[in-house]
Amino acid sequence: ALLPAFPGLHAQRQAVDHGVKVTGCTVHFVDESLDGGPIILQRCVGVLENDDEDSLAERILHHEHECYPEAIQLFCEGRLEIAGRKVRIR
Question: DSSP character for 49?
Answer without folding.
Answer: T
